[in-house]
Specification:
alpha/beta, nine-stranded mixed beta sheet
């Protein structure tokens, strides 16, 4: 089975979407963050043979994150595993879901640990996404997984417009790949691809998808077909669509 790791934060004002918060205020930025995550959850319906693992921070936010996300996914506890949840909102039947704290350290150390844990848990292919790219849905991820083959590609990467990533898919831990990268730098994706080249890892680069970081990004995503879902989450009148 495959694993999709979703990196996210407990939605606390001033601790999420801080760049957006300087433009629209921390409370509104937090509302936008929650909407983006909830829209992304709907986009992830239809993953093929893939468990979703929500890696959250801070580490003591387990109950708060579960209370938030499990209700959105209409998920319930697995009868066979106390750490596993099942959501019936999956096109192929049951979607497996679990939760894991990110732990201490830099962002690079946390994603390195999360992907390594995925392989240690027995998953053959491990994907990692941000929670701020709502266009990276199940169809896109399924297609990206299909590009990961021993004969052609061992790594699939998706860049965003800020020189970072929205999707990383690995067929092996590749600890050297994610190390020593400044993930706040606009050269992060370039450094990542350089590491892959130096390690002679066969890589597939996907088309760029937008992440929502600034107010301008938020306004752009509201001109896409996702705006209907955003309006519903915000409680806005669906009759006043802007697309």
């Amino acid at each position: 089975m495959r694993l999709l790791i979703v990196m996210l934060k407990e939605p606390i004002a001033g601790q999420v979407k801080t760049r957006l918060g300087t433009q629209v205020g921390n409370e509104l930025a937090t509302d936008y963050y929650k909407v983006l995550v909830e829209v992304l959850l709907k986009q992830l319906q239809g993953l093929s043979q893939c468990r979703i693992r929500f890696c959250f921070t801070p580490d003591d936010a387990d109950d708060a994150v579960r209370f938030w996300l499990l209700s959105e996914l209409e998920a319930s506890l697995s009868p066979d595993n106390p750490k596993l949840f099942h959501s019936p909102t999956h096109a192929e039947g049951i979607q497996e879901i679990d939760f894991c704290p990110q732990g201490a350290g830099s962002y690079g150390e946390r994603i390195q640990r999360a992907t390594q844990q995925g392989f240690d848990d027995g998953f053959k292919e491990v994907a990692l996404i941000h929670s701020d790219c709502p266009e990276c849905g199940a169809r896109w991820i399924n297609a990206a997984f299909s590009a990961l083959t021993p004969s052609s590609n061992n790594l699939v990467l998706g860049p965003n417009q800020y020189g970072n990533y929205y999707l990383i898919i690995l067929s092996a831990p590749h600890s050297e790949l994610l190390a020593d990268i400044n993930w706040d730098d606009q050269q992060a994706f370039t450094t990542l691809t350089t590491h892959a080249q130096n390690a002679q890892i066969k890589t597939k680069i996907l088309p760029e998808l937008p992440s929502v970081i600034t107010q301008g990004d938020w306004e752009k995503v509201r001109t896409t077909p996702l705006n209907a879902a955003i309006k519903k989450r915000l409680g806005e009148d669906l009759g006043e669509m802007t697309v």
